[in-house]
Amino acid sequence: MNIPGNIITLIAGILLTLISLWYGQNHGLMPVEASQGAAEVDELFNLMMTIATGLFLIVEGVLVYCLIKFRRKKGDKTDGPGIEGNVPLEIVWTAIPTVIVFILALYSFEVYNNMGGLDPETSRDFPQGEMQMAENQGKMVAFNPHQGHLSLGIGNAKADLEVDVNGIQYAWIFTYPDSGVVSGELHVPVNKQVKLNMKAGDVIHAFWVPQLRLKQDVLPGRDSNLAFNSNRIGDYPIVCAELCGAYHGGMKTVLHVESEEDYQKWIQENTFANAQEKADTMALMTQPITQESRLEMHSHHLGVHPEILAQLHDHD
Amino acid sequence: MSTTTVSEKPQHKERKLIDYFTFNTDHKVIGIQYLVTSFLFYFIGGAFAEIVRTELATPDPDIVSPELYNQLFTLHGTIMIFLWIVPAGAAFANYLIPLMIGAEDMAFPRLNAIAFWLVPPGGVLLLSSFLVGAPQSGWTSYPPLSLMSGKWGEEIWIVSVLLLGTSSILGGINFATTILKMRIKDMDLHSMPLFCWAMLATSALILLSTPVLAGALILLSFDLIAGTSFFNPTGGGDPVVYQHLFWFYSHPAVYIMILPFFGVVSEVIPVHSRKPIFGYRAIAYSSLAISFLGLIVWAHHMFTSGTPGWLRMFFMATTMLIAVPTGIKIFSWCATMWGGKIELNSPMLFAMGFVSSFLIGGLTGVMVASVPFDIHVHDTYFIVGHFHYVLFGGSALALFSGFYHWFPKMTGKNYNEGLGQLHFILTFIGLNITFMPMHQLGLMGMNRRIALYDVEFQPLNLLSTAGAYIMAVSTIPFIINVIWSLAKGTQAERNPWRALTIEWQTASPPIIENFEEEPILWSGPYDYGIDDEEEEEESVSDMLADVSAK
Ligand code: HEM
Ligand SMILES: [Cu+2]
Ligand SMILES: [Cu+2]
Question: How far apart are CA B377 and CA A42, in angstroms?
């Protein structure tokens, strides 16, 4: 049977589109979504996966086809056709990536804007008020970058709950200014706008919750903010994503997204907790403490065995 | 002769083995010196990678201590970049540029030798840092961490990177001058081989960006040694300024690492497909476009750092635009193969492997350019997967492709085809098994630069480690092939591939003055299958083959 070439091309094109569309939606590579923003990021990723799958199949397909179809026959010393280019074809394949990139950039811009990334408060490196104040005093602001309060990060809008975050080697310390609760884990109520005011005590850390699709560096000498609204009750890892020293891998804790009642209960318990216990926690979490004991504090999240830790100590 | 325009022209006597260990000004000797040196460091950097991957086979930090782990990946990255890929690019450029443009040597032979002789001390110095505690803060060396974890190791790292950067600048000056000034008279810019275009673009990038890295490192060094606080927040400095300076070099550095190898595959593919390169000008100009765009995208490494929103948008747009010239190249290489007469030998296998894996690095590259997505995957294994597809699947595979392609020219010996193909198959399989699962790990939530991780990540890490072992094994046929061919290989012909670029017009290996007489431009570099009016049957390349056989 002799099927005309353009029909084969058509069928191949349809198949390719279907496979790309299917894989783009069903790759299952992302962890669960625990915020509104996460869903948007995933949709963007799905679109990029669809396009990438299509391009991948086309180019790899061409390579495999060449490999099979255009092999030199034994003893054939002649050259292939002397085709040096094809202007219309080249215009097409310049235009296609240009259009794709244009669409992706616009879409990414949209998602980023929805996440609050272009919030007037956050998108400026230097809040207007402070700038004027600095000018009035005749200061050279450019040479004094963190004198002013630098506000970085996503979604800085009005929050239902503010938490102060301090990143130190190798722990996160969360302080609830309203109740004075200090904790090594973050508890937030579900469906509430939460704003983190983050500082670093020593080196750069990065606050990352994969399920929220959010990450922000925490820089010493600067304040950064991160706002999120989690819509899914559950426990999610808080990961430090910026190399911060030998036990960077151990700088991990948990985000508990709870119902309003559970959250209030937790706040109550901790506010009225035994004063001595609280003092202990504080002592444990602030300065004079070895790297190993900090690691131990956090090791239970990692499934690291005590023997391994003991072994670790022997190394030093 | 056009080479007389440049004054410095030392005479070379007959070649002896000792020449390769001394201050020799012959570009071919220097090319080999670069190549051998860079491969020695490849094995060292590769060994470190194997230890890193072995450690990551299990979630616990049990093979090496976390400090040593950090030292190993820091040195792995530094060595692979500054002591392998970049010098290997310089190796090809040194060896090939004068031969491809019909010159007797580089424009500044003594400078060339100096540039090379900065590399071994730089490398030895870097390794010596193990004696005082190697640097632990990654190849990026972000302050304030880099100011805190081991002063002397860090200082040694700075000095050795400065040495290697200087070497690279000296090389860049030489390549650009040679390409622009020393072509034989018939060769205009548009009839020179694409490798020369690629090196021109690379040199421009080296000259514009490397000095900025030097500046950043010198300031970092002041902070470290003299207690200044350019970047140290405790004294009022700003660590983000370092990141800007660092990435202003180090993003272009990615193109410094890959553009020369784009050039290499643009030479290999037409020869072994017996077709002209498709879209010569598009490929040449897209190199320049990549150079230019490469200079204005650096802050995409800082999307989660102290970068304001509007600036993130600007860098997102410029970064994504790089997909256009890169896409043009990939499509052009595919179109060159299409309808050709492909000889599936080692150079061609590596070249096709390069196109297929670099494609993956490019596709994930567009993804990470998207700010909302990058916020999720920045500093995770997704990034580690992405840049290894670019650097290993891109640069390294193309490097091997060029290595086999020019092996007969450089050594005068034929390599063993079977071993070459085995090398390719193991590398290609190993590469994909090692780096593909990393993407998923990153998306799931595994951050990079960690010696210990959650148990849920173990299966994919185990797979990745298995792949790394396959890659280690893949070097065995390679090493055997090189040693065996040098010792027992048959004498290579002048032009075994019947190629049209003029380095193939001289003996294999080339005589000391490169050519007996000034080479003649028979044809364009890629005029395969382009017959002149009268002769329908016999192509230019066949005539050439006849001539060189005599
Ligand atoms: C056998 C092949 C290789 C393996 C198994 C391997 C493995 C790895 C791994 C696991 C890391 C991640 C360390 C971490 O972030 O925790 C890494 C980092 C890195 N690799 Fe490779 N790699 C290989 C080859 C290469 C090559 C060929 C290059 C460059 C030409 C390269 C350049 C880098 C760089 C720049 C880093 C970053 C280092 C840093 O973060 O300081 N690698 N490699
Ligand atoms: Cu940290
Ligand atoms: Cu960390």
Answer: 12
CB B244 within 8 Å of CB B299: yes
Residues of chain B in contact with residue A118, where contact means CB-CB under 8 angstroms, are 309-310, 313
* Per-residue pLDDT reduced to its tens digit, B246-289: 999 999 999 999 999 999 999 999 999 999 999 999 999 999 99
Do the Cβ atoms of A218 and A167 come closer than 8 Å?
yes
Indicate the average pLDDT of chain B: 91
Measured CA to CA, the distance from residue B375 to residue B316 in angstroms comes to 12
Measured distance CA(B369)–CA(A107) in Å, rounded: 12
* Chain centroid offset of residue A164 CA: 20
Displacement of CA B207 from its chain's centroid (Å): 17
Q: Which residues is A165 bridged to in the sheet? A: A174, A198
Could you tell me how far CA B76 lies from the centroid of its own chain? 15
Task: Give strand ranges (E) for B241-316.
Answer: none
Whether residue B47 has its Cβ less than 6 Å from ligand 1: no
Strand partners, A175: A164, A182
Compute the distance between CA of residue B522 and CA of residue B537 in angstroms, rounded to an integer.
17
Q: Is B2 on the interface with A (CB under 8 A)?
A: no
Q: In whole angstroms, give the CA distance from residue A217 to residue B295.
A: 24
Q: Which residue has the higher pLDDT, B123 or A133?
A: B123
DSSP-derived secondary structure for B154-170: HHHHHHHHHHHHHHHHH
Residues of B with Cβ-Cβ distance to A52 under 8 angstroms:
363-364, 366-367
pTM attached to this predicted model: 0.89
Residues B193/B280, Cβ–Cβ less than 8 Å: no
Q: Is the beta carbon of B449 within 6 A of some atom in ligand 1?
A: yes
> Which residues of chain B lie closer than 8 angstroms to A301, CB-CB?
454
ipTM: 0.90
Q: Under a CB-based contact definition with an 8 Å cutoff, are residues B245 and B213 in contact? A: yes
Distance from CA of B1 to the nearest CA of A (A): 31
Helix, coil or strand: residue A12: helix
Cα distance between residue B215 and residue B461, in whole Å: 38
Q: Is B519 in the pocket of ligand 1 (CB under 6 A)?
A: no
pLDDT in tens, A54-107: 999 999 999 999 999 999 988 888 888 888 888 999 999 999 999 999 999 999
**Amino acid identity at B102:** G
Helix (H) or strand (E) holding A189, with range, is strand A186-189
Q: Give the DSSP per-residue string, B76-97.
A: HHHIIIIIIIHHHHHHHHHHHH
